[in-house]
Amino acid sequence: MNIKIFGCFFYLGLMFLALVGCKKGAATASLASDAAKRVYVAPGDKDEVYAFLSGGFSGQMSVYGIPSARLFKIIPVFSVFPENGYGYDEETKNMLRTTHGYVPWDDSHHVEASMTDGKQDGRWMFLNANNTPRLARIDLKSFETKEIIEIPNTAGNHASPFATENTEYLMAATRFSVPIPQSSVPIENFSKGDFKGTITMVKVDPKSGRLSIELQILVPGFDYDLSHCGKGKSHDWCFFTSYNTEQAYKMIEVGASKNDKDYILAFNWVRAKQCLDQGKASNFGGEYYRNFLPENQPAVSEKMSGVKMLQPKDCPGVMYYLPTPKSPHGTDVDPTGEYIVGGGKLATVIPVHSFTKLMDVKDKPEHRTKEIMNIPVLKYESTLAGEVNKPCLGPLHTEFDGKGYAYTSCFVSSEVVKWKLGTWEVVQHLPAYYSVGHLSIVGGSSKEPYGKYLIALNKITKDRYLPVGMELPQSAQLYDISGNKAELLSDFPTVGEPHYSQMIPAKMLMDKAAKIYPLEENKHPYAIKNEKDAKVIREGNVVRVLMTQIRSHFKPDTIEVRKGDTVYFHVTNLEQDFDIPHGFAINGAPEMPNLLIMPGQTRTFKWQASKPGIYPFYCTDFCSALHQEMQQYIRVSP
């Protein structure tokens, strides 16, 4: 028999045996008999929970209500959004500025909630950009992106933006190791140590939320995949999975799967800060942009230069490698801060490290096997609390319910396994349809999970929905985990490709959500607050139209410009009533989509008067019984 065919059958046989073995004696989840009743939210009633889902290749963040799974909003973050003009208009265009130029798209994977004392505090959400390394901060009063910071000296910002217990810092790590500083070297030099990674500590201002890069730490050139920071006793530490410790650069799916164990990197960020304060970090190159959107004003884009870089050899005790099987993807810390769970996607166990054991053995030579770039590698058994044996196929990510149980997603066997912390016993298998990635429990990555609901974010949909062409929307599934046995409640389609989610009780946010921009607080340089101030200003070939909107007309309502003029429509929505936005669009505008302008807000539409004629403009958001009459004309003269 052809050896490749034999290998395929052998592997499939192992998968079947493992799947049968791991399900023996464990209960499976079924659809709750009253599922429809439990997800139904009556007209006028509110959901219990907000769910914030990353958008993956959409570059955005979506907001759902749980348990109804109704989509409430798409928050534009790293990608342009024609629906409201984000990334196109003069106010938000600078939010997408990078050292590579204007980048109108990204790949957003992980959502993180701000925390105080390890508990969700409802101030901000953070989101990573994987392709062009960046972090974003979303304000949870306005549900708008307020800041984006670029991360230098890295590539593939995947292991981010994971927060320390009081949101002192967000952590970010390199997925694609590269020469640092960047240079053109032979790719085969990857295995010779010419490629490196970095861990980046992004400081979060406790009052304003403003982001700044405080420190980078140079690390070996592995692929750093995911992270979570400690809680309670492990407050000072963050943990990062790494794969491709083989440093393969061809046929990586084979070359990066040879080692039985890769590593979780245990990083003492408090120690790193001490070394920084002691002057042990050096000045290092690296340009990056920090983009900030002030309240109701144009975005400010700052080009920054240089960072502080720390070498592990100059800061003993800052990092340790914990061997972890095999090609670990997720690393998650339980609510007590004691257990660090690895998700080895090619492993037959779920390994659980003990923080107490780590503290006991980390500086004892007999518990070390070697050093890599002055980072000690500890013995696997020395930090091991236990293993969940034969749980499933392809364990990835773990969340916690706060009642002593953990839930781990299993990509290959398309299921979620529930297991007991401390005894490592699997107590339930929950089918997921299909190929589940991340999980999310309400507050499940915090010190105090709220529990009740779990979402599985599945990668393949297949037969779950009506066919709509060659690709279906990726599916999420909602489970009720409040009882002894979890029950499946519903499937719902998602936006883009969600990788991770944070769920927050609705009562924490709903009463704080902004309803309008107070007109008297509008500090936009071209805002006007009364119709009588509406006017047209000519500055050579630049024309500025200071315009107002209110149900159901514009002022000024007819506009005359000349061919070749660059026209800026600075449009202020004078409404002070909740949920009354106005739109603005011009017939045939080639570079600008619709603007959606909130009550009390000013937005700018830039238009080139390139051809003589009459051009209608109108409100695009149905606002009143006379909405259709909210239209006017621009005349372009030769």
UniProtKB/TrEMBL annotation:
What EC number(s) does the entry state?
1.7.2.4
Compartment annotation: Cell envelope
> Which GO terms of the molecular function aspect are on file?
metal ion binding; nitrous-oxide reductase activity
Top-rank taxon of the source lineage equals: Bacteria
InterPro entries linked to this entry? Cupredoxin, N2O_reductase_N, N2OR_C, Nitrous_oxide_Rdtase_Sec-dep, Nos_propeller, NosZ/Cyto_c_oxidase_sub2, WD40/YVTN_repeat-like_dom_sf
Segments forming a coiled coil: none
Q: Which UniProt keywords apply?
A: Copper, Metal-binding, Oxidoreductase
- Cellular component annotations (GO), alphabetically ordered: cell envelope
The keyword Transcription regulation is assigned to this record: no
Recorded hits in Pfam families, A to Z, give: nos_propeller
Q: What class of enzyme is it?
A: oxidoreductase
- Does the record's keyword annotation contain Oxidoreductase? yes
Q: What is this protein called?
A: Nitrous-oxide reductase, Sec-dependent
Which organism does this sequence originate in?
Answer: Leptospira fainei serovar Hurstbridge str. BUT 6
Q: Tell me the gene name.
A: nosZ
